[in-house]
């Protein structure tokens, strides 16, 4: 590895059937179900799966009535855990629940005012980050797009092609890109694809099919003669899913965001409604960063927002441009202050976070998906930002 002339950036992703992603999707499907009946629901639900046992726990304040066990089984079935040979199925898994009312001590800091006319305070303290770069059309790091593209392709093939008769739901990808001293990508140093499969195919045949159907369509433009390709590197991946590893909500926070190319405050997104700034402020930070880059103010941007529990407004908003700015940083701050409001209430309204939409975010990343109706991916503030610096 030539670290004198190149830098190397790595990102990973996981399929919808990865144990942690099973839990993320279940938790977010539960959030959606509450919001569908009661848009003012406050939800914080975690999922834990091991073997053929699923546990759901958390706190909820809502007028909705939701059968969380039924929702969990439907998610597991839709992912594709229906074959008893896998050892974990939607029909047979044991589901334990421990969901209770949100703490009144927390609620009095979130609901500020009467129940009919109130402002939303932050549900917790925290620091949330958002990032954008102009190296790709969707303003995401290239390595993230490639890693997510591989697992998305793997899931699509399992559900929709003849390769699916051999594949099981669990899987992962990882790509390492080589960049020159000007920060330009020059080619893949290595890539990894791990795909769970049944006993009906040998590893050599599976590797050939995965190369043809999954890897080449996504990564071939970036592959070089010396690119190292690892496909099911242990030589066998039959045992997987929750039978192979436990799963837990919120354990893939870098997969969910920018693949280690930006900082992370540590708070996961899934299982939380918009009053939880772990989620809402991270979405807002992405929204602001993306519009800043699209406005031409800089090539790379990281936005950090911090809150105190019960606060309506943030403690601080910080913008980092990594030396890539095209206008003075003070002018960027001034434009952001003119165009955006960072109150929790305004973020929820602006980004439409009372709408059921979170199950879809729980796999393939929360950002960069421009054609799926997520408000935080829109570029509708570019003109306002540009006007603000004239």
TrEMBL record:
Entry GO MF terms: methionine adenosyltransferase activity
S-adenosylmethionine synthetase C-terminal domain segment(s): 239-378
Binding site for L-methionine: 59, 102, 245, 276
Cofactor: how and how many bound: Binds 2 divalent ions per subunit. Binds 1 potassium ion per subunit.
Coiled-coil portions: none
Chain sites annotated for binding ATP: 18, 170-172, 236-237, 245, 251-252, 268, 272
Domain S-adenosylmethionine synthetase central: 120-237
A Pfam family that the UniProt record links to this protein: S-AdoMet_synt_N
Subunit record text: Homotetramer; dimer of dimers.
Identification of the protein by name: S-adenosylmethionine synthase
Species the sequence originates in: Megasphaera massiliensis
Organism lineage: Bacteria, Bacillati, Bacillota, Negativicutes, Veillonellales
Gene name per UniProt: metK
């Amino acid at each position: 590895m030539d670290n004198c002339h190149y830098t190397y950036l790595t990102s990973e992703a996981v399929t919808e059937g990865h144990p942690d992603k099973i839990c993320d999707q279940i938790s977010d499907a539960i959030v959606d179900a509450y919001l569908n009946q009661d848009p003012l629901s406050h939800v914080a639900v975690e999922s834990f799966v091991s073997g053929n046992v699923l546990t759901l726990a958390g706190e909820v304040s809502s007028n909705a009535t939701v059968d969380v066990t039924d929702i969990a089984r439907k998610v597991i079935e839709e992912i594709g855990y229906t074959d008893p040979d896998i050892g974990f199925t939607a029909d047979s898994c044991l589901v334990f629940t421990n969901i209770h009312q949100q703490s009144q001590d927390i609620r009095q800091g979130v609901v500020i005012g009467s129940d009919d006319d109130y402002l939303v305070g932050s549900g917790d303290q925290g620091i949330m980050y958002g990032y954008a770069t102009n190296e790709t059309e969707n303003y995401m790091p290239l390595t993230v797009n490639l890693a997510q593209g591989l697992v998305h392709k793997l899931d699509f093939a399992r559900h929709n092609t003849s390769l699916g008769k051999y594949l099981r739901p669990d899987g992962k990808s990882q790509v390492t890109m080589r960049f020159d001293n000007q920060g330009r990508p020059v080619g893949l140093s290595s890539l990894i694809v791990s795909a769970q499969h049944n006993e009906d195919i040998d590893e050599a045949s599976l590797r050939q099919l995965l190369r043809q159907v999954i890897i080449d369509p996504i990564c071939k433009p970036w592959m070089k003669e010396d690119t190292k390709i690892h496909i099911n590197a242990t030589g066998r991946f039959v045992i997987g899913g929750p039978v192979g590893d436990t799963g837990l909500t919120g354990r893939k926070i870098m997969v969910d965001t920018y693949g280690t190319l930006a900082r992370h405050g540590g708070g996961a997104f899934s299982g939380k409604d918009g009053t939880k700034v772990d989620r809402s402020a991270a979405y807002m930070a992405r929204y602001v960063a993306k519009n800043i880059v699209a406005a031409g103010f800089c090539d790379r941007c990281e936005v950090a927002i911090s809150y105190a529990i019960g606060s309506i407004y943030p403690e601080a908003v910080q913008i980092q441009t990594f030396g890539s700015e095209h206008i003075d940083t003070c002018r960027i701050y001034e434009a952001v202050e003119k165009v955006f409001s960072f109150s929790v209430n305004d973020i929820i309204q602006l980004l439409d976070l009372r709408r059921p939409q979170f199950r879809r975010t729980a796999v393939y990343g929360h950002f960069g998906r421009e054609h799926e109706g997520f408000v935080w991916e829109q570029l509708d503030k570019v003109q306002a930002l540009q006007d603000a610096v004239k």
